[in-house]
Amino acid sequence: MTIHSESLALSLASISPAMLALIGGGLAALALLVVVLLLRSASLRREQAEEASFRAEENEARMAELLKIQAEMQGRIAVMTEVFGARQSELNQTISQRLDGMSQRVSSTITEQTKSTHENLQRLQERLAVIDAAQNNIQTLAKDVVGLQAILSNKQTRGAFGQSRMETIVADGLPMGAYAFQQTLSNGSRPDCTIRMPNGAPPLVIDAKFPLEAWNAIRDAGSPEAGKIAGQQFRRDMEVHIRDISEKYLIQGETQDTAFLFVPSESIFAEIHEHFEPVVQKAHRARIVIVSPSLLMLSIQVIQAVLKDQRMRAQAHLIQGEVAILMDDLSRLDERVRKLQGHFAMAQKDIDMVVTSADKLTRRGAKIEALEFEAGGSDAKPARDSEAAAKSVESRTGLLKLRVVDEE
Q: Which of 171, 324, 367, 379 could disulfide-link to 372, CB 3.0 to 4.6 Å?
C-alpha cells in the first residue's frame, strides 16, 4: 500500500500543470458524464416507475374488467342454468307425457290385440266345431251313399227309391185327389203314378222305373270296348222300356197320348241327352218324354196352374153373381151421390142469392152512411126492393128447407 502511494505521489509530482488541467477537465467531464448518466438513470427509473404504475393501473383496470366480465359470466351462467333447468324440467315432463301416451297406446294396442286374438281363437274354435260337424255329416253321408249304392244294386229297392222320389215330387206339387199311385188301368197294368187332368181329360201316366244296371255297367267299364258294349246294352234296355211304356200305359181315350219316363238323377238325364240322342228321339216318336226331377217338378207346377185355372173357371158364375151385386150397390151409391150433388147445387144457388142481397145491402148502407139520399120515390123503390129481396130470400130459404124435407 505504501509502495502504491509512493508511486502515486511520484507520478503526481512528475505531472505538469497542463496535464493537471487536462486531467481536471477530464475529471470534470467525467463527473459531468456521471451526473448525466445518473440523471438519465433517474429519469429512466422514473419512467419505469411511471410505466410500472401505469401498467399496474392498466392491470387493475383489466382485472376489474375481468372481474366484471366474470360477474356477468356468472350471471349469464346462472341464467343459463335456470333456463337449462326449466328446459330440462319441460323436457322431462314432455318425455314423461310421451312415455305415458306411448305406454297407454301400447297397453290399448296390446288389449285390442289380445281381444282380437281371443275373438279369432273363438272364431277358430267355432269353425273347428263347424268342421267337426261337417266331418260328421260327411261320414254320415258316406254311410248313406254306401247304403244308397246297396239300394241301387238291387232292382226292387232301386225301383222303390225312384218311386219314392217321384211320389215326393208329385205329392209336394199337387193337391190331394189330383193324382193316384199304382192305379190299375183297363188292360190290367199298374203305372207308378197317374195325374188327373182338368176338364175331364184323360190322366197323365208317369213311370219311375229306369234300367240302371246297364248304366252302371257303362260307368264300371274299364276299357273303350267294354264301354261300347255296355252302351249298346243300355240303348237296348231303354228302347225295350220305352216300348213297354207305350204299349202298356198309352191307351186311347183312357190315358193321355204322352207319358213321362222319370229318371231320378240330373246327371244321368244329362248324359242320356248328350250321348244317347237316338234313344231320346225314339222316345219322342213313341210319345214318351224323359224327365229329370227338375223337369218333373216344372211339369207338376204347370199342371197345378192349369188345375187352379179350372177351379177359377168353375167358380166363374159365382164371381159374376158377386160382381152383379157389386154393380147394383154401385148404381145405388151413384144415384144417392147425384141426389146429394143436386142438394148441394141448390144450396149453393141460394147462398149466391143471399150473398148478392147482402152485397146490395152493404152498398146501400154505405150510401146511407155517406148521406147520398135520393128522391122520395127513388128512396121508396130501393126500400121496396130490399124488402122484396129479403122476403125472396126468406121464401127461398123456406122452399129449400121444404124441398130437402120432401126429398128426404
A: 367
